[in-house]
Request: fold
Amino acid sequence: MTDEDRRRADRLARALGVAGLGLGIAPLTATDAISRLCGVDDSGTARTMLRLAGVRELVHSVLLLGSRSPAPLVWTRVVGDMLDLTALGLAASNRTGHRRTRVLAVTAGVAAITAADVYTALCGLRRRAPEHARAGTVHATITVNRPRDEVYRFWHDFENLPQFMIHLDTVRDLGDGRSHWRATGPLGRTLEWEAEMIDDRPDELIAWHATQGMIAGNSGAVRFTDAPGDRGTEVRVTLQYAPRGGGAVAAFTRLLGEHPDQMVRDDLRRFKQVMETGEVVLSEGMPMGTHAKRQLRQRAAQPMSRGGGGFR
Amino acid sequence: MRATCWMGRGKVEVRDVPDPQILNSHDAIVRVTSTAICGSDLHLYDGFIPTMKKGDVLGHEFMGEVVEVGPEVHDLRPGDRVVVPFPISCGSCWACENELFSICENSNPNAGIAEKLLGHSPAGIYGYSHMLGGFPGGQAEYARVPFADVNPIKIEDDLPDEKVLFLSDIFPTGWIGAEMADIKDGDVVAVWGAGPVGQFAIASAFLMGAERVIAIDRFPYRLRRVERMGADPLDYEEAIDVPDALRDMTGGRGPDCCIDAVGLEAHHATPMYAYDRAKQATRLETDRPFVLREAIMSCRNGGTVSVVGVYGGFVDKFPMGSLMNRSITLRGAQCHVQKYLRPLLDRIRNGDIDPSFVVSHHMSLDDTPRGYRLFRDKREECNKVVLHP
Ligand SMILES: NC(=O)c1ccc[n+]([C@@H]2O[C@H](COP(=O)([O-])OP(=O)(O)OC[C@H]3O[C@@H](n4cnc5c(N)ncnc54)[C@H](O)[C@@H]3O)[C@@H](O)[C@H]2O)c1
Ligand SMILES: [Zn+2]
Ligand SMILES: [Zn+2]
Reply:
C-alpha cells in the first residue's frame, strides 16, 4: 500500500468525522423534527435513543478529527452503525403506514453510511498490512558490455553473487546444483537458506529456488540474450517471493527494501560494474561496496577516516 | 587536509576533513596543485542542483601530482603530473568505448537517484551532488581519482599549471559547444554568455572556421574581453530584444549556429524573467530557460542550437513549434572531456591557443569563499578564479 492510499484512507476518515458532526448535532438540537423525519415521533423511548445516537455520533467525530491517522478509528463508527441499524429494524417492525415508510427510508440512508464507514475502515486495515508481507514479483534488466557466455558463466557460479547483491554475505556451493546462502538482515540478524538450481540452459537461463530454511519457496531466474548491435548481453532477472507469514520471511523481504525493484536494479548495476570494470565502484557519499556495506544512507561526499572501508 | 565544503545555499567553507584514501583498486590519490571555480559550481552555490549534502567537498576542475595509486593502476605512478577531467569514466562500458565519457554507465554509484530525475543516469562527476555520485571534489589539498588509468592525462613537459588546468573542463567544454553547433566555414555563430565557457566556445568557433562570432552578455568587462578575442559584443540589456538584434546583425537570417553557455540561471530584465524566477522559486519549474528560448527563436531556419550551459531538471514554455517547423537541430552535453584531452593539449603545445587568457584571480585555498562571492557577483572584473592549495 502506497503513501498515497494511506493518505486517502485518512482523508476519507476525516470527511466522515465532519459529516458525523452534522449527524450528531441535528438530533440533539432538533429532536422533534428529526424524530418526525425518522417516523418515530410516536415514542418517548425512540426520542431518547435518537439523542443518545447523536451524542455517540459526536464522540466518533471528536475521535476521528483529533487523530493524526484516523482511518482505523472508523471501526468505532461501524459498531455504532450496527446499533443504529438494529434499532431501526425494531422500529420498522413495530410500525405501519407512512411511519414505516419513513423508518425504512432512514434505514436505507444509514445503510449507505455504514457502507462508507466499512469501506474506509477496510482501507485503514490494508494500510497496516506491511508491503513486504505480501507476495510479489520483482523484475529488473540491464545490458552488460560482455559476451553472453562470459556473463552467463559468472552468474552461474553462485559464489560470485555476493559481489554485487548487496544483501548477501556469502553463497557456498554444495555441489549438485545446491548452494547455501547467507544474508544479514535488519538489526544484524542472520538469515540462511539453501537453494537449488532448477533450470540451467548454458548461455541462456539460470533458475533457482530456495528449498530449505526460512524462505523456502522463493525463487529467481536470470535470462541472457544478445544485445543488438554488438552491445553485449541483455540480462533479465525475475525474483519471486512468496512469504508465508513468520518473522523470518518478513525480515527477508524487508532485506529487499521498501522498493524491491530499485534494489534489484541496483544489484544489476553493480553486476555490470563487476563484469565491465572488475569491481563495484565506490564513492565516499555511497561507500557500500561488498566489503564496505556499512550504511545504506548517503554520507557527505567527504573522504572517510582511515579504516573506513574500501576494497581492502 | 583542507577542503572546500558546501555548507548550504550561498555558503562554502574551507574545513578540515580526512585525507582521501584508495577505495577502489583503480584509484589514484592526487595532491592538488591548482584548481578552479566553475560556473557549474555557482549552480550548487546558489542551491539549484538537488541532492547536495552539507559538508560535500566541491570542485571538479583540478590538476596535481599523483601521490598514491591502487594495485590495479598500471599507467600512472607517484610523481606523475596530471590534469583530471571532470566526468568520471570507467573506460570499458559501451558509452566510454564510443567516447561518450560523460555518460559512462558505471561511474555513478547513485545512478538510481539520477534515474528518477533524468530517466537514465549520466556519469559521476567530482563534487557535483549525490545524484551524480557523491564523489568529493578537487577544491582541496588532495583528491581521490577513480579509474586512474582511464581519466587523467599526464603532462610530461613543463607547461605551467595555468596553461593546462582548463583541459579539466572549460576548454573542452567550449570546444564541444562549438563542435555540437556544427560550424562550417563562413558561418555566423552566436554565443550566449561571455563567461569562461562562452570565451572558450568563441575561441573554438574561430578555430573551426566561423567567419563571425557574436557574443551576448551584459557585463562590460566580459564584453570587452570577448571583443579582444575578435567577437562582436552584444549587450542584451541595451539590445532589449536579442532575437531582433541578431536578425539585424545577420541580414534577417539569424545566426547559423547558436551556443547556450549560460544555463539554468539565465538572467534577464523582462517580465518573462520574473515569471521564470517565480516559478523556479516555487519549484514549478526547476530551470530558467530564458537563453534556451532565445537561442531557438533566433536561430536561422535549419540551423543548430548547442547547449553546454547546465540544466538540472524541467523547463517551461519551450518553443517546440519553432524548433519543429523550422528544422532546427538541438544538441546538448556535459562535455566528454577525455575525448578532447590529447588533441587540445596538442593545440596548446603548438601555440594555437593559450588557455590561461581566462584567468583573472589567483588565490590560496583558504580564500575560496571570497572566490565564490567574487565570481558569482561578477565583482572586481572576476572572470576565472584559480585556487592554489
Ligand atoms: N556542459 C558542460 O560540460 C559544462 C562545463 C562547464 C560549465 N558548464 C556551464 O556553462 C555555463 C557557463 O559557465 P561559466 O563558467 O562561463 O559561468 P559564468 O557564470 O562565469 O558565465 C555565465 C555568463 O552568462 C551571462 N548571462 C546570464 N544571463 C544571460 C542572458 N540572459 N543572456 C546572455 N548572457 C547571460 C552572465 O552574465 C555570465 O557572464 C554554466 O551553466 C556552467 O554550468 C557546462
Ligand atoms: Zn566546470
Ligand atoms: Zn564507462
